[in-house]
Write a structure and sequence with these properties.
- This protein is of the alpha+beta class and about 240 residues long.
- The protein folds into two domains: about 120 residues, Glutaredoxin (3-Layer(aba) Sandwich); about 100 residues, Glutathione S-transferase Yfyf (Class Pi), Chain A, domain 2 (Up-down Bundle).
- Helices cover about 50% and strands about 10% of the residues.
- It is built from nine helices and four strands; from the N terminus they run E-H-E-H-E-E-H-H-H-H-H-H-H.
- A four-stranded mixed beta sheet has the order 2-1-3-4, with helices on one face.
- Helix 1 links the parallel strand 1 and strand 2.
- Helix 4 packs parallel to helix 6.
- GO terms for molecular function: transferase activity.
- It holds the Pfam family GST_C.
- Belongs to the GST superfamily.
- Keywords: Transferase.
Length: about 240
């Protein structure tokens, strides 16, 4: 059994997508980031960066004590290696998928996240910041669209690279992007959305968070919890 510490964000969806695809038994431990669950000592013990998702695998390969992993990309890589699924053992195909996984972790996620922040949550609209992140998100969409012009998925076969990127493309409207401008990316998005495991993963989101689909941060208290954190929150 795997304990998944989860909330209904793009990074959280990555892991439910994998677990549903692989058929691994898991239980969800909700981490409601709007209520400050990410600062609870039991969560910080496995996720010292006070960010979800995180997992605890009670049956790691080879046995032994339960193993915890934080950071969504590291979790995907761990689960792929554990199951032998969604990451090729071929040297070239494996590295192809890994470079796109790291591309998402280092580029698409952070840039789209800042896009969301300055468009939707910043207390004042700062045109320079909005344009900066909308334009960079647009560039990254273009990179994906070009990559997908001659292949079904980012590394050929469906892999953890696709699971990492997909949840960050789903909210394209909130990122001020017109998905019709990126036909190959749109085809890829629709293909992954239609996978039964994806449908199940997003259904889990609605079960865990009845407000899923609404703005994540709605109150001043939630904004104080999530924005403007300093080193004081990890002491």
């Amino acid at each position: 059994m795997i304990d998944l510490y989860y909330w209904t964000t793009p990074n959280g969806h990555k892991i439910t997508m994998f677990l549903e695809e692989a058929g691994l038994p898991y239980g969800i431990v909700p981490v409601n980031i709007g209520k400050g669950d990410q600062f609870k000592p039991d969560f910080l013990a496995i996720a010292p960066n006070n960010r979800m998702p995180a997992i605890v695998d009670h049956q790691p390969a080879g046995g032994g004590t339960p193993l915890s992993v934080f950071e969504s990309g590291a979790i995907l890589l761990y689960l792929a290696d554990k199951t032998g699924q969604f990451l090729s053992k071929d040297l070239y195909a494996r590295n192809d998928a890994l470079q796109w996984l790291f591309w998402q972790m280092g580029g698409l996620g952070p840039m789209a996240g800042q896009n969301h922040h300055f468009n939707n949550y910043a207390p004042e609209k700062i045109p320079y910041a909005i344009n900066r992140y909308v334009n960079e998100t647009n560039r990254l969409y273009g990179v994906l669209n070009k990559r997908l012009a001659d292949r079904d998925f980012l590394a050929g076969e469906y892999s953890i690279a696709d699971m990492a990127s997909y949840p960050w493309i789903v909210p394209h409207k909130n990122q001020s992007q017109n998905i019709d401008d990126f036909p190959h990316l749109k085809r890829w998005l629709e293909a992954i959305a239609a996978r039964p495991a994806t449908v199940r993963a997003y259904a889990k989101a609605k079960e865990i968070n009845p407000d899923f689909g609404q703005p994540t941060i709605r109150t001043e208290e939630e904004k104080k919890l999530l924005f403007g954190q300093t080193a004081a929150v990890v002491k």
